[in-house]
Automatic annotation (TrEMBL):
Mitochondrion listed as a keyword: no
PANTHER family: PHOSPHATE REGULON TRANSCRIPTIONAL REGULATORY PROTEIN PHOB, REGULATOR OF RPOS
Protein name: Phosphate regulon transcriptional regulatory protein PhoB (SphR)
Naturally occurring in which organism (per UniProt): uncultured Chloroflexota bacterium
SUPFAM superfamilies, A to Z: C-terminal effector domain of the bipartite response regulators, CheY-like
Cellular component GO terms, alphabetical: cytosol; protein-DNA complex
Source domain of life: Bacteria
Keywords: DNA-binding, Phosphoprotein, Transcription, Transcription regulation, Two-component regulatory system
Amino acid sequence: MARILIVEDEVDLSNLLRSHLEQDGHEVAQAFDGPAGLALVDRHRPDLVLLDWMLPGLDGLAVCRRIRERYLMPVIMLTARGEEIDRVLGLEAGADDYVPKPFGIRELQARVRAALRRGAMVAGAGAAPAPVMQGTLRIDPAARTVTVEGEPVDLTRTEFDLLLLLVQNAGRAFSREFLLERIWGYTHDGGGRSVDSQVARLRRKLGLLGERIVTVWGVGYRFIDRPA
Ligand code: CA
C-alpha cells in the first residue's frame, strides 16, 4: 500500500482512478490544478504522483519539474497528447513514465505497481546500502566495489556514483542535467559533454555490460533491465 497523489482536472477521471487505486489498498489524495498539486506534494510526501499534462494554473510539465527540484518519488504523466516529442519532454522534465489517454485502468494499475517498485528502490538506497545486482554485475555501495562475473572493475568515484544511480534505477531515463547535478553537484555550460565522456569511459570499462547503458535520444541515459 502506498500514498498516491492524483493531479487531474477531469473530476470524473480523477474519481475513477481514485476508486480503483483505493481498491488496490492505496491511500489516495486528489488535486485538481497544478498549484494545489504541488502544495499536496509538500504536505503529504506521496510515494507516487499521477500527473495530468494539461492542467489549470500550472501545466503538468512545470509541476513535474518543480517536483524534481526537491523529490525523487516516481511521477507518471497522463496525457491526451501522444506525440513522441511530448514523451521526450515529459522524460526530460523528470517523469518516470508516460501514459497516453485514453488508457485502460488495468494498464495504469500495472504501471503504478512498476513505478512503486522502482520508487522503493530509490527510497531504500540511502537507508540500507545492500549490494545491487544486474546479471553478472554486482555493485556494493558500502564497500564501493564493482565486479563483473566476479572480476573487480576499477572505477573512479564519479564513474562509480554514475553507475550506481543508473543501475539502482534501471529502466528509468535520466537527463544529462539531472546526472550532472546529482553526481557532480553542479551544472555548467557544456556539462552535458562531460556526462557523455564519463559514460563512454564507464561503458568501455564494463565491456559487454556497458552496452546496457543506453542513450535516450534527446534526453540522456538509462540502464536497461535486461539486454534487448
Ligand atoms: Ca486535463
